[in-house]
Amino acid sequence: MLNPQKHDNMPTGFNVCKILAISAFILYILIMYHIYQSSVCTSPVNKKLKQATSSPPPPPSPPTDIRQLVFTIAGSVKTWRSRGSYFREWWRPNVTRGYIYFDKEPTAEFLPWPYDNFPPYRVSENTTKLVVYSRHAKPDVIRIVRTILESFREGDKDVRWYVMGDDDTIFFLDNLVQLLGRYDHTKYVYIGGVSECVKSNLDISFEMAYGGGGFALSYPLVEALVANLDRCIETYPFYLNSDQIISACITDLGVPFTSEKGFHQIDLVHNISGFLSAHPHAPLISLHHLDIVSPIFPTMDRHKSLRHLMTSAKVDQSRLLQQTVCYHKQKNWAFSIAWGYSACIYEQLIPRSILRRPLETFTPWSLNQTPPYNYMFNSRLLTTNSCETPHNFYFHSISNLNNDNNYYDSNSNITTYEVMTTYVRYKPRELPPCSPHHSADYITKIRVYSPATKLNFVGNRGECCDVLNVDGNNNTAEVRIRACKKTEIII
């Protein structure tokens, strides 16, 4: 006889198994359908991703060339008489491109215009018709601001950079091209330098390129800037400076300012030799106000001084003003070389960390300041201390040595030809020696040998040097500039 309780449970267990089987089958169908749909939906994307990852990257842009720069120079007929000769020293006819914008038509003394030596001139558009002109605090600056718009409208082809400057701005073109080549010209880029004086930056801006030192704007930035320029000018009728208006407009576009130490506004007066003899480790891009400061070579006038500096610049712009320090420990002398400009001998082993600070041979641009002056760099005060006052020598001549004078630099593992620059004493120091037996008064000339290769500043340290010889018979010292050893410290 069957157990009634067991018989009653059999249909229940069978139903459970049946339900589980059906549920599993339905779940299987749903999973397979989901997988199929996912495959159908994502296959075009996967195909595109596969194509994107397998496509070769676009070829890199060729290096920036000087012909891809357009210079926009703000000038005036009144100042051109004295500044034209400065301009001639750096402009390269039939190579550089750009325009100089005058406030009015040049007078007869400048005509016919010497296109073989200078860029084409333009007379700035009449800005008095603009609504903002009558209510602007200094309406003349509107003309200068709008030169970038007028230059852009010229429609030059294959332009990567627009470079702004004044008619007394001196550009060092090889260094400028190399510097701009580090930046992506397809992005929005605004590059320049600030004033050397804290007060100037405090009064105007610490985040602005000063036009006298020049600044560079990438093509896309200029394109966006000129589309909004007149509206920007109307927004800032209280700004007294054209650079300030341009900077404000660029800031309103969301573009930051990039400061490079080689742009020099030179908001300094009098003797700037101390400043030039301790240039930062950066390529020299520009100089300004050379018609205001004392001649940079004390035995020449201003125009001849610039021409003389350009003599060394034509051989090696990359090293121009670059400071190199080394020591003659037997005599307790420190040598500081500002290549192509000056050389100094100190009768004490002063560390490079001190010598890199400019001697205050200059004073600030502003006349209402009193010492101590505040600069955007650390400096050293002039002194009559014999151990801290240098013997000064200035650049005299330069020559490429012949093939028999090549030099093997074991630090860089390169055999290179050399360039020799000669520096001649300016005048007696007229101080007693720092030490009775180590006077440098008898040295009248310093020869400096440097590699005939260009400096690369990106990620590299400065150069080192050795004192090769101190010849009492010829009153000459010889120094060789070289690559620093791997762990060498300059002291």
Automatic annotation (TrEMBL):
Gene3D superfamilies: 3.90.550.50. The chain crosses the membrane at residues 12-36. Keywords: Membrane, Transmembrane, Transmembrane helix. This is Fringe-like protein. It comes from Helianthus annuus. Pfam families: DUF604. It comes from the Eukaryota.
